[in-house]
Design brief:
InterPro entries: Dimeric_a/b-barrel (IPR011008), Tscrpt_reg_AsnC/Lrp_C (IPR019887). Residues 6-75 form the Transcription regulator AsnC/Lrp ligand binding domain. Pfam families: AsnC_trans_reg. By secondary structure, the chain is α+β, with helices and mostly antiparallel strands. It has a domain at 12-42 and 64-77. Helix content is 27%, strand content 39%. A 4-stranded antiparallel beta sheet has the order 2-3-1-4. Strand 2 and strand 3 form a beta hairpin. The longest helix has 12 residues, at 49-60. The chain is globular and about 35 Å long.
Length: 77
């Protein structure tokens, strides 16, 4: 399994709805609204990097109100 944090910027006033929608997607472990340069931070997992990419591009980025994502895969050092 591969896990990642996905940092999300949203349109003004859309963060809570985006976080709630993302939380219901299979593979999403946690979705929280935050303050700072990003509006929502998500922790997600997938079977491999390709599946993680598909989760981000096909499911998360398709949500109304998202303007930008940054995916940070977790490494174990």
């Amino acid at each position: 399994m591969v896990q990642a944090y996905i940092l999300i910027q949203t349109e003004v006033g859309k963060a809570a709805g985006v976080a709630q929608t993302i939380a219901s997607i299979p593979g999403v472990l946690q979705a929280e609204g935050v303050t700072g340069p990003y509006d929502v931070i998500v922790r997600a997992e997938a079977s491999d990097v390709d599946q993680l990419g598909k989760l981000v591009v096909a499911q998360i980025q398709a949500i109304d109100g998202i303007t930008r994502t940054l995916t940070c895969p977790i490494i174990h050092i």
